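Q: I have 181 residues here and want to know how they pack in 3D. Can you give me a structure?
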Amino acid sequence: MHERFVLVTGCSGGGKSTLIEELARRDHRTVEEPGRRIVREELAGEGSALPWVDLAAFARRAIRMAVADWRGAHAGAGGEGWTFFDRGVIDAASAFEVATGRKVLAPLARRYRYGPLVFLAPPWPEIHAGDDERRHGFAVAVEEYERLADILPALGYEIRLLPKVPVAERAAFMLAALERG
């Protein structure tokens, strides 16, 4: 069933969440980014598992949430449709490795697979913006993108770069690529 799980990842501030929202409007199953949910919860509760306070704690929570999202989608993914993930286990495990130096990515990536085609949002400075949930700058976002661009092929995924076009065109690009296989 994981072949129908589509990972959308890449540069922070590259339009992934907007794209996921567009896919949801088109009645596709979607999973919101774990990081944004964690930041909202931590800020609401005055927690410290925030990427700018304690990246290791944040990434640990993101791994747990991404695994729960994957399992939940797997349990509830009947039918032929796609499930689109705004980031996932790979992103969280990669961040954890950066924060701690502990190697967790490979075993987690083997266990929690997504479909073979992953969509990667490239750096797009014209739309990148910080907010209460994204406090890092563009340079950090580019580093994250480059790390993921290196990791994904090593894990056996085929990368498809998302074009820098309006969101409706991005969604159409993704859906056409998936239909072609």
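Q: Anything worth noting?
A: The beta strands are 5-10, 29-31, 83-86, 117-121, 158-161. Residues 119 and 160 are 5 Å apart (CA to CA).
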